[in-house]
Amino acid sequence: MAVFGKAQYIKRVEDDRLLTGTGGFTDNLSRPNQAHVVLVRSPHAHAKILKIDTEAAKAAPGVVAVYTWADMEKDGVGNFAFPAMFPAADGSKPEMTPRRSLAHEVVRYVGEAVVAIVADTREQAQDAVELVDIEYEQLPAVTEIEDALKPGAPQVWQGAPGNVAGYNKFGDHAKAEEVFKSAAHVVSLDIVHQRLIVNTKKTRAVMAEWENDRLIVHIGSQNPSVTRDTLCDVILKMPKDKVRVVVRDIGGGFGMKVGIQPDEAVAVWAAKVLKRPVRWRAERGEEFAATTAGRDQFHKASMAFDKDGRILALRMEAFANIGAYPSRGGVVIPLFVGPKVTTGTYDVPLIDLRITCVITNTATIGAYRGAGRPECIFNLERMMDTAARQIGMDPAELRRRNFVKPSQMPYTTAMGEKYDSGDFNLFLTKTLEAADWDGFAARKAEAEKRGKLYGRGLASYVEWTSANVMNEMAHYEVKEDGKVVIWMGTQGMGQGLQTSFTQLASELLGIDPSQIEIAMGDSDRVGGVGSMGSRSAYIGGSAVLTGSEKLVDKGKELAADALEAATADIVYSAGRFTITGTDRGIGLGELAAKQPDKRIFIENVNTVDGIAWPNGAHVGEVEIDPDTGMVELKRYTTVDDVGNPLHRPIVFGQIHGGCAQGIGQALLEENVYDRESGQLLTGSFMDYAMPRAGTFPTFNNQLDDTVPAKSNPIGAKGVGESGTVGSTPTVMNAIMDALWPLGVRNIQMPATPQRVWHAIQETRK
Question: What residue segments make up the domains of the chain, in order of their start?
Answer without folding.
Answer: 15-23+468-607, 420-465+612-763
